[in-house]
C-alpha cells in the first residue's frame, strides 16, 4: 500500500494533522481499499452443479442474481431438483430400497461460517435440502437421521408425513423382486431364499465353505453393474453469491435397492460437497459408499488451498480413489475463489453445469475419464 501522505490531496498533505485526524483518515482509506477488494469484480455470482440439471441451476441463479445469499441459492436450486425428481435419483419417487421405500439424504454447508446441516435416511419428508437447512439454522447439531429427522422436520413446519414412493419406483422394485432381488449390495452371505433374509457365511458352519479369493473379487467387480448415473446419483451444487461468499448443498434419494438404513456420501461434509470461503468449493457424485471413505471434496479444497489448480486438484482426488478401487464410478467438480472450475471422473463420462455473469444461460461441460 502506498504511503498515507501520497494518497492525500496536496493541500492536506502539507497540513499538519493531529493523531486523531490521521487515525480517522487512515481508517477511511483502508475501508475504501478493502471494500474495493471485496466488491463484486464481475466474476460473481457463479452457480455450479453436477450433471445437466439445468432448471436447478437456473433456479439457483435467479435467487443469487437478485442479491440473495449463497445459502439461499443452494437451497432453492437443490429444492428445484427435488421437485423435478431429477433423473429419478433426487427427491421423492425414486431409488427404492430393498423394502421398496424411498428415503432422502441431503446437506447444506455455509463456506463462510463452516456450519453444516444434514439429514440422512430421512423417511416421509420430500424436502431434503430444506430439512438440512433447518438443522443448520435451529440446532447445534450437524446431522439428524431416520424417523427422528422426519419428526424434527415436521415440527419445524415442513409438510409430512408423505409417502415418498411413486408408481415408477414401485414398478422398479417389483421387477427387481421378480429377478430374485439381483443385483444387490450384500456380500459374503447366504440367503434363506432368493431375497433373504441373509446370514453371514461364517455363522453357518464349515459345511457351507468360506468365501474364496475368486468369489470376493467377483463381488467387488460386480459392484459397478448396479452403479450408474440413473440409479446412483446426487445433485451437488456450489454457489458464489455477489459478495463472493460460498455455499454448497446436496440432495439424493440414494442407491437403488440399497439395504434399508444405508447412508451414502450425500449428507457427509467433505465427501459429497465441501466449501471454504477462503479457497473454493467442490461437489461430488457417484458410488458414495466408496467415495465417502476418501472425503474427495475435502481433499480437493485442501489441495487448492495449497496452490493446486482446480483441474489438478479434481484429478488428484479421483486418482486417490481409483488406485484403491479401480472399478469405482464417480466424479467431482472443483471451483476456486477466482471462479476457475474443472471436473474429473472415473468409470463414466461426467457432465457438470455452470452459470456465471458472462453467460446468457447455463453451460454444460463434459469430462471424460
From TrEMBL:
Active-site residues from the entry: 234 (nucleophile)
Sorted UniProt keywords: Autocatalytic cleavage, Hydrolase, Protease, Signal
GO molecular function: beta-aspartyl-peptidase activity; N4-(beta-N-acetylglucosaminyl)-L-asparaginase activity
Binding site for substrate: 262-265, 285-288
EC number, as in UniProt: 3.4.19.5
Catalytic reaction annotation: Cleavage of a beta-linked Asp residue from the N-terminus of a polypeptide
UniProt cross-references to Pfam families, sorted A to Z: Asparaginase_2
Top-level taxon: Eukaryota
An example Gene Ontology biological process: proteolysis
Marked site: Cleavage: 233-234
Signal peptide from the UniProt entry: 1-35
Record-level GO cellular component terms: cytoplasm
EC category name: hydrolase
Family (UniProt): Belongs to the Ntn-hydrolase family.
Quaternary context: Heterotetramer of two alpha and two beta chains arranged as a dimer of alpha/beta heterodimers.
Protein's UniProt name: beta-aspartyl-peptidase
Organism in which the protein naturally occurs: Prunus avium
Amino acid at each position: 500500500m502506498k504511503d498515507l501522505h501520497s494518497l492525500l490531496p496536496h493541500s492536506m498533505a502539507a497540513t499538519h494533522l493531529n493523531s486523531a485526524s490521521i487515525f480517522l483518515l487512515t481508517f477511511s482509506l483502508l475501508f475504501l481499499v478493502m471494500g474495493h477488494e471485496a466488491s463484486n469484480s464481475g466474476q460473481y455470482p457463479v452457480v455450479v452443479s453436477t450433471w445437466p440439471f439445468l432448471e436447478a441451476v437456473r433456479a439457483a441463479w435467479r435467487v443469487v442474481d437478485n442479491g440473495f445469499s449463497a445459502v439461499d441459492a443452494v437451497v432453492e436450486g437443490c429444492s428445484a431438483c427435488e421437485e423435478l425428481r431429477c433423473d429419478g435419483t433426487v427427491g421423492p419417487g425414486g431409488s427404492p430400497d430393498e423394502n421398496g421405500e424411498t428415503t432422502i439424504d441431503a446437506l447444506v454447508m455455509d463456506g463462510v461460517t463452516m456450519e453444516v446441516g444434514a439429514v440422512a435416511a430421512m423417511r416421509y419428508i420430500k424436502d431434503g435440502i430444506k430439512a438440512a437447512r433447518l438443522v443448520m439454522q435451529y440446532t447445534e447439531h450437524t446431522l439428524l437421521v431416520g424417523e427422528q429427522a422426519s419428526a424434527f422436520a415436521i415440527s419445524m413446519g415442513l409438510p409430512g408425513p408423505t409417502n415418498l414412493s411413486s408408481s415408477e419406483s414401485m414398478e422398479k422394485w417389483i421387477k427387481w423382486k421378480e429377478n430374485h432381488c439381483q443385483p444387490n449390495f450384500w456380500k459374503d452371505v447366504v440367503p434363506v431364499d432368493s431375497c433373504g433374509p441373509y446370514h453371514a457365511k461364517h455363522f453357518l458352519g464349515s459345511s457351507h465353505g468360506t468365501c474364496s479369493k475368486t468369489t470376493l473379487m467377483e463381488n467387488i467387480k460386480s459392484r459397478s453393474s448396479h452403479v450408474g448415473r440413473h440409479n446412483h446419483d446426487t445433485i451437488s451444487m456450489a454457489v458464489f453469491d455477489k459478495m463472493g461468499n460460498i455455499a454448497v448443498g446436496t440432495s439424493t434419494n440414494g442407491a437403488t435397492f440399497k439395504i434399508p438404513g444405508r447412508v451414502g456420501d450425500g449428507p457427509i461434509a467433505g465427501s459429497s460437497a465441501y466449501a471454504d470461503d477462503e479457497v473454493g468449493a467442490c461437489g461430488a457424485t457417484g458410488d458414495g459408499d466408496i467415495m465417502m471413505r476418501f472425503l474427495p471434496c475435502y481433499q480437493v479444497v485442501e489441495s487448492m488451498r495449497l496452490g493446486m489448480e482446480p483441474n489438478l486438484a479434481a484429478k488428484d482426488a479421483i486418482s486417490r480413489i481409483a488406485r484403491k478401487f479401480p472399478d469405482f464410478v464417480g466424479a467431482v467438480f472443483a471451483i476456486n475463489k477466482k471462479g476457475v472450475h474443472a471436473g474429473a471422473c472415473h468409470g463414466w463420462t461426467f457432465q457438470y453445469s455452470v452459470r456465471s455473469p458472462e453467460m446468457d444461460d447455463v453451460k454444460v461441460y463434459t469430462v471424460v475419464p
